[in-house]
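4.2 Preliminary Data

To establish feasibility before requesting continued support, the project team ran the inverse folding procedure on a target of 672 residues. The structure was first converted into the token representation described in Section 3, and no sequence information of any kind was made available to the design step. The complete token record follows.
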């Protein structure tokens, strides 16, 4: 910007400065003449105009230069008139003109800086700012306000707030507006909708306040905050409250609300409707083998198929995982439900999910689903209906994939499932209250060489009864509680070993389930637990069954290797049950082979079993493994095992399982 432009800009923006200073100088000259302090001509005051103009445009330095030039002009004019000038008169005028220039320039510069700061804050504010007069008419608008309303800033000037507001909002804050100008309040806020250039309503928050100071008491500052992002966030939150984010279907909360609303209708108008629960068959295998991303694709495809198959009046929701719920509000009979369910299951079975290129070896995935249903009685309860449908669904899955079962209270299988859920609560309570107790059964060296060690067995004290693993482990497996039980047993075993002096500690064998073998963090957790209790790895042996080992060979092998790197040995339990026992003996890094009791019980009278057991022992020894025979119940069996070279025996012949605390206490006393 050039000097002339700067002068012009400052002159037009700040005329009061120039006029005030020039007028003040005229008054100053008049007073000097009246007091006869010095001989000053009235014409001297005319020099104030150019001095003030230059000072306003160029600041204090420009004012000094203008003052000195004005002095020179004055001196030259006086000289041309043959006036007798003294140096005092020149000095007085020079001082006055220069002081005027400095004062005007400094004042103008300060005001320009203040104006610049205000203009910068005004123009660059992140939200809209409007300046209005007492009548609410816009006198200035910043770029954010213009952008918010989709209008050039200049087109807003002269419009009133009423012109750009939703007509329904007019008069809403009239009382606050009047109170603001009467001085009873200094500011207020108001939510309303403004109208942009396209006629679209924009939700905003207006923060209205009077301009500070006395110079413009009727001026009002209106801060305009765009609420669209907040509204969108609120709408998204409200949506997620009722909907499943993966499929867009209703979630469990919303389904239960819809079911409750329907039950109120049923109570007034009679029996109607059915609740169906659908569970994708073998979905865990899809997730484990193809990944969770593919699992999500499958779930969305199933959801789309269900939406396409159901009617507008039906209610569909994803309850979580691979479980979907359906409310058929007008199904009145078993036949209606069976017909609808058959169509739904057929729609799911017809789904073919094309996989990404990375899964080209399995280009398409097809799934089936199992379904449980319950017909709504005249007086139903939402929780009970869902539980009944859940029981029926479990019954369907236990029968065959892709089947449906309608709930019947008299169904033996439903009773069995209900018993399983009861066991689930009993197991959880047992873990929380530490009602599970560790028992130890001895494993004895047959030749007398080697240390006696023990297998850790589990018992549950509940309702004045001692429950054996056969009573609760199958329910724990079905309900996904085995990994929790395993950690409980491992931690309690390590804690017991830590309480025994190192020289008295026996070696203990602990069973691990398939669920634990799939836990990538198990080895790290075990290492930390042993370190915390001061237990060395040579005090622990982990047992896994052959069926557990082969259920997921890569995971089993990886977990075994990680734990063996800690120095912990592994035993393969129930060896010989599977047809591929020797193959897995070669593939997995076991240290101990435990021969299944089915080959040991009648060993004394069964020549075939004797040959098989000898082959197992010879093979294990040839691979450098230690052998243990299970279920040894008589001396004759023990003698044959000893003759065949078996290393250890376990069974009632050597001792039954007893509480671990008792066994460890006896060992401590014996070794004293």
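Position-by-position output of the design step:
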């Amino acid at each position: 910007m050039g000097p002339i432009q700067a002068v012009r800009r400052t002159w037009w923006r700040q005329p009061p400065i120039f006029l005030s200073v020039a007028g003040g100088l005229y008054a100053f000259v008049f007073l000097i003449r009246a007091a006869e302090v010095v001989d000053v001509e009235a014409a001297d005051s005319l020099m104030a105009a150019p001095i003030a103009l230059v000072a306003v445009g160029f600041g204090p330095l420009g004012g000094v230069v203008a003052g000195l030039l004005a002095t020179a002009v004055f001196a030259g004019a006086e000289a041309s008139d043959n006036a007798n000038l003294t140096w005092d008169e020149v000095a007085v005028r020079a001082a006055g003109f220069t002081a005027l220039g400095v004062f005007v320039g400094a004042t103008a510069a300060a005001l320009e800086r203040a104006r610049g700061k205000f203009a910068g804050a005004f123009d660059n504010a992140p939200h809209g700012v409007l300046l209005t007069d007492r009548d609410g008419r816009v006198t200035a608008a910043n770029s954010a306000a213009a952008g918010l309303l989709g209008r050039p800033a200049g087109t807003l000037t002269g419009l009133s707030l009423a012109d750009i507001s939703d007509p329904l909002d007019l008069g809403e804050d009239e009382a606050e507006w009047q109170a603001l100008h009467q001085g009873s309040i200094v500011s207020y806020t108001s939510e309303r909708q403004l109208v942009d250039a396209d006629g679209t309503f924009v939700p905003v928050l207006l923060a209205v306040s009077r301009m500070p100071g006395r110079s413009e008491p009727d001026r009002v500052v209106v801060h305009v905050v765009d609420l669209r992002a907040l509204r969108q966030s609120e709408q998204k939150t409200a949506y997620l409250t009722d909907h499943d984010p993966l499929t867009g279907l209703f979630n469990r909360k919303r389904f239960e609300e819809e079911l409750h609303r329907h039950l109120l209708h049923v109570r007034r108008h009679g029996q109607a409707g059915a609740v169906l629960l659908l569970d994708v068959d073998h979905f865990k295998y899809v997730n484990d083998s193809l990944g969770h991303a593919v699992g999500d694709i499958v779930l969305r495809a199933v959801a789309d198929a269900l939406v396409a198959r159901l009617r507008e009046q039906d209610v569909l929701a994803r309850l979580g995982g691979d479980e979907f719920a359906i409310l058929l509000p007008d199904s009145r009979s078993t036949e209606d439900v069976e017909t609808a369910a058959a169509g739904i299951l057929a729609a799911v079975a017809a789904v073919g999910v094309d996989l990404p290129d990375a899964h080209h070896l399995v280009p398409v995935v097809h799934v089936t689903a199992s379904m449980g249903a319950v017909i709504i009685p005249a007086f139903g309860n939402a929780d009970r209906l869902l539980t009944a449908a859940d029981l029926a669904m479990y019954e369907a899955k236990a029968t065959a994939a892709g089947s449906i079962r309608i709930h019947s209270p008299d169904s033996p299988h439903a009773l069995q499932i209900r018993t399983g859920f009861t066991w689930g609560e009993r197991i959880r309570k047992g873990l929380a209250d530490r009602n599970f107790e560790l028992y130890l059964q001895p494993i004895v060296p047959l030749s007398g060489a080697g240390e006696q060690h023990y297998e850790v067995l589990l018992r549950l004290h509940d309702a004045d009864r001692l429950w054996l693993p056969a009573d609760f482990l199958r329910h724990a497996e079905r309900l996904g509680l085995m990994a929790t039980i395993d950690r409980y047993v491992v931690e309690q075993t390590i804690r017991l070993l830590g309480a025994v002096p190192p020289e008295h500690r026996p070696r203990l064998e602990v069973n691990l389930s398939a669920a634990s073998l799939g836990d990538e963090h198990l080895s790290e957790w075990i290492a930390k637990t042993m370190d915390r209790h001061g237990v060395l790895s040579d005090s622990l042996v982990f047992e896994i069954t052959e069926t557990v080992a082969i259920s997921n060979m890569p995971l089993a092998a990886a977990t075994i290797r990680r734990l063996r790197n800690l120095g912990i040995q592994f035993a393969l339990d129930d060896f010989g049950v599977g047809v591929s026992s020797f193959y897995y003996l070669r593939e997995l890094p076991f240290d101990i082979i435990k021969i299944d009791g089915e080959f040991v019980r009648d060993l004394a009278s069964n020549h075939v079993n004797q040959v098989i057991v000898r082959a197992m022992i010879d093979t294990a020894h040839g691979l450098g493994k230690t052998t243990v025979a299970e279920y040894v119940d008589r001396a004759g069996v023990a003698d044959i095992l000893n003759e065949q070279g078996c290393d250890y025996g376990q069974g009632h012949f050597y001792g039954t399982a007893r509480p671990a605390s008792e066994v460890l206490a006896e060992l401590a006393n014996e070794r004293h």
